[in-house]
From TrEMBL:
Basic and acidic residues bias spans: 30-40
InterPro entries: GH, GH10, GH10_dom
Signal peptide range: 1-30
Keywords assigned by UniProt, alphabetized: Carbohydrate metabolism, Glycosidase, Hydrolase, Polysaccharide degradation, Signal, Xylan degradation
Any one GO molecular function term: endo-1,4-beta-xylanase activity
Swiss-Prot/TrEMBL catalytic activity: Endohydrolysis of (1->4)-beta-D-xylosidic linkages in xylans
Top-level EC class: hydrolase
Family: Belongs to the glycosyl hydrolase 10 (cellulase F) family.
Protein name: Beta-xylanase
Organism placement in taxonomy: Bacteria, Bacillati, Actinomycetota, Actinomycetes, Streptosporangiales
Region called Disordered, residue ranges: 28-47
Boundaries of every GH10 domain copy: 74-377
Gene Ontology annotations of biological process type: xylan catabolic process
Amino acid sequence: MQPIRFVTATLATAATAALLLPLGAAPAAADRHHGPDGRHTPPHSNAKFDRLRWAAPEDFVIGTAVAGGGHHLEQDYPDPFTSDGRYRRVLAQQFSSVSPENQMKWEYLHPERDRYDFAMADRIVDFAERNGQVVRGHTLLWHSQNPAWLEEGDFTDAELREILRDHITTVVGRYSGRIHQWDVTNEIFDEAGNLRTEDNIWLRELGPGVIADAFRWAHEADPHAELFLNDYGVEEVNAKSDAYYELSQQLLADGVPLHGFSTQAHLSLNYPFPAGLEENLRRFDDLGLATAVTEMDVRMNVPENGRPTAAQLREQADYYRQGLAACLAVEGCDSFTIWGFTDKYSWVPVFFEGEGSATVMTDDYTRKPAYHALWSTLKRAEYDRG
Ligand code: 9MR
């Protein structure tokens, strides 16, 4: 992937490049407090080797959701992305890919039929460019977070089709050349592997053929963006991921510009780690598709004192490690994104009562074992994968 080489080359100035691990150095020599040469570094060092994005192999991006909109609007804090300086700093330092958590969904971008609002999305894309990060666009065709004017409107099929075509053409076109991957469709199948023809307005009113149309429109608007099918609960080989496998084959056979399949990976310590993740990604890879992990987090039952136990944190770290390792093991999986990096802004406690601590940093940005697991897995892969 050319853009990432470019980023590495432009940001690694002569002075800072000296901080990167020299090729051939033993990865085990560096940890949070020790540099590659074994010298002690302060815990809050700004050194580049101390960051996820610089630990990653070349051509592999490590991403996060950019907090804002959605559940955040009901919390007693201001918009994280625009208001929390520390949040922005960590976002820029640690990650090489960003995904707007809500700010590119229909209800934000398209509040009225004849009006688009790109203010927040623009700010995120500008921020990403300033910081040498790629952007994952999320999302164009979904059953959720659609504006009321759309869901409750009384449109003919021809009008609805035109509304979708206009939205995709306008949004993808606006960011043409600036968005690395788009989740063209999100969550179009249910757990049994049936298309969500009841709750998804597009599938219900326009039929399954609209999926291919959405990809074609997106591709016309930005021929360079990689276009993905994205969903949760498709980590393993199961009825739902089988449905994606069949759909992918069909779309490819029909010459539809489908480029990738991605799994969200919202995991929980209450369930075993989805051990078939690598195998599942690999079968899509074998179709010639890119693959990605797009929204990983690992929630747990939070003890009454509010603090996860050491054993929980260790187990969580192991889930993150395995999730990342599965992606790294598949050649075409070169984008791994976590759904937020600090518990302070995680969606999990808002949606799952009694559960939380799902991200890799605490509320005050202290790194958990999960953060270190990601770092060391990336670092090891830098040597294996190059
Ligand atoms: O994290 C998002 C949260 O802020 C919103 O309130 C919520 C509304 O559905 O959506 C969350 O993000 C979802 C993502 O867009 C699609 N996959 C599942 C994510 C977690 O629910």
